[in-house]
Amino acid sequence: MIKKLLIALTVIILLGVGYFLLAPLFITTKIDEALPLVPTQNSTLGTTSQPQQTGSATIIGTPGHAASGQVKILSDGTDSYIRYENFKTINGPDIYVYLAKDLDAQDFVNIGKVKATEGNVNYKIPTGVTVSDYKYVMIWCKAFGVLFNYADITDL
């Protein structure tokens, strides 16, 4: 009886671990967020325009974590955003977007949990954070301490 129980528990644990490790390779989340709109100054009609955009930086995947797309920094004068365009990467557990000064993420700011693994995605930069103080935008897995992908934003 105990032997059957141990075998059943082992199978359940192996299935759970297998799902945790393999499911992110097959599950994707796609969104297509519009650019944040900016109210135009001195407008009685309440019209809006697109925010100022920087150039773009290419997203670079790491071994085992393919990625593609571009990163831009957007600003409307009061708020700033990191925008992933034509983004595609693999999914993973507990992944977040960071602004970092180095690829080891020793000096970083957490921007938020990854919303999607494909598409055009905006992440608001927290108030008081100066983007020019950081060299990289990266997606990092907190669960395993693994860098998924990054973009060098030094020249943006």
Can you walk through the features of this model?
The structure is a single chain. This protein has one helix at 2-26; strands at residues 30-32, 38-39, 48-49, 52-58, 60-61, 67-75, 80-89, 95-100, 108-113, 118-124, 136-141, 146-152. It is α+β, with helices and mostly antiparallel strands and 156 residues long. The strands form 3 sheets. It has a 5-stranded mixed sheet with strand order 1-10-7-6-4, with no helix packed on it. A 5-stranded antiparallel sheet has the order 5-12-11-8-9, with no helix packed on it. The longest helix is centred in the N-terminal third of the chain and has 25 residues, at 2-26. The termini are far apart. The relative contact order is 0.20. The model has no long low-confidence stretch (mean pLDDT 85).
CATH-assigned fold name: Immunoglobulin-like
| Unreliable stretches covering 5 or more consecutive residues | none
Q: Which band does the percent of strand residues land in?
A: 35-45%
The rounded Rg comes to 20 Å
Please give the share of residues in helix.
10-25%
Name a few traits of the molecule.
alpha+beta; Immunoglobulin-like; 5-stranded mixed sheet; 12 strands; 16% helix; 43% strand
List the helices and strands and how they pair.
Elements (H helix, E strand, L loop, with lengths): L1 H25 L3 E3 L5 E2 L8 E2 L2 E7 L1 E2 L5 E9 L4 E10 L5 E6 L7 E6 L4 E7 L11 E6 L4 E7 L4
Parallel strand pairs: 1-10
Antiparallel strand pairs: 2-3, 4-6, 5-12, 6-7, 7-10, 8-9, 8-11, 11-12
In short:
The protein is an alpha+beta fold. The protein has one helix and twelve strands, in the order αββββββββββββ. It is elongated and about 70 Å long.
